[in-house]
Amino acid sequence: MEIYLDTANLKEIQEVAALGIISGITTNPTLVAKEGKGVSFETRIKEIAEIIPGPISAEVVSTEATGMLREAYAMAKWSSQVVIKIPMIPEGLKAVKILSQDGIKTNMTLIFSTNQALLAARAGATYVSSFIGRMDDISQDGMRVIREIREVWDRHSIQARIIAASIRHPIHLVEAARAGAHIATVPYKILMQALKHPLTDIGLERFLADWKSLTS
Ligand code: E4P
Q1: Would the pTM of this model clear 0.90, i.e. be above it?
Q2: Is 86 in contact with 98 (CB distance < 8 Å)?
Q3: N or C: at which end does the chain have fewer Cβ atoms within 10 angstroms?
C-alpha cells in the first residue's frame, strides 16, 4: 500500500518527503483553507509539485459539470502531477467521464459506499477516495467499505486505485493495508504517531548508554 500525505502544509510535506515514505499528496478545500489566504491555490500546488514527484490531488469547488471542467482544465495546466479531485455527485460523474476521455486523471472524492465507488470507476475515475473516519464517526464501519470495494475490484478486474481517506489513527493505516486499499492518505500527525514505538526509543536509549559506558 502506498502512503500519501493528506495536507496542503508545505512544512509538513517537506519534512515527510525527506523520510522517503510518501508517494503523493491529497488536498481538499478545508485543508487549503487551513493554510490561510497568504498564498494562492495555484502557487501552493506548484510548490508541492517541486517537493513531491508523485500525484497531487487538487479539488474543484464547482457543483455543476461545466464549472468543474473549467476548473479542471485550468488546474491540469499547473503541473502534470495534478489529479483533479471531484465530488461523487451526478454532475461530478459527468465531469469525470469527460476528463477521463481527455486523458486527465481524476480522484472521485466523498465516497461512502461500494456502489458509489463502482459508479465512479465506471465513469472513468483514476482514483476512488472512500472516507473511513467520517463513516466511523456516524457508527458505520468505514473499513468494511474498503474491504467490499477491494472484493468487487478483484472479482471484476477494475483498475481504479482505491484510496483509504479520512484516516483518524494509526490502526486505520494497518487496517486499510490489510483490507487491500492501494493507497492510504494520512494526516501528518497520524503518520508521526505511526512511525513511533516507545520500545524503539527505550531500546535506542539503552544501546547508546551501554556504548557510552564502554567508551568512557
Ligand atoms: C482526502 O482525500 C480527504 O479529503 C480527507 O482524508 C478527509 O479527511 P477528514 O474526514 O479527516 O476531513
Answers
A1: yes
A2: no
A3: C
